[in-house]
Amino acid sequence: MQTITILNLEQIGEQIHYKASTMRTMIAKGEHGRLPPMFKRDRRWFARYEDVETWKAEHFVKEGLW
């Protein structure tokens, strides 16, 4: 079983938040055609985890760390 530290969760959460906010900004500017394929593929996923705290909470519960 892989051990995940709080620091790693913080870093991952920040990356998700950055990607989600970048995507929302580009869509708001009408630049969604220029989004990288990863953003297009995971649009709903990033929208779901727009709030980093929500993502962390779900992750903790899923991994049984809470």
Shape annotation: elongated
The overall pLDDT average reads 61
Low-confidence stretches: none
Q: Helical content, roughly?
A: 55-70%
Spatial extent as radius of gyration: 14 Å
- Tally the structural domains: 1
Describe the structure.
The protein is 70% helix and 0% strand. The protein is an all-alpha fold and 66 residues long. It has one domain. Helix 1 packs across helix 4. The longest helix is centred in the N-terminal third of the chain and has 23 residues. The model has no long low-confidence stretch (mean pLDDT 61).
What tags apply to this protein structure?
single chain; 66 residues; mainly alpha; 4 helices; 70% helix
Brief synopsis:
This protein has 66 residues and is mainly alpha-helical. The protein is built from four helices and no strands.
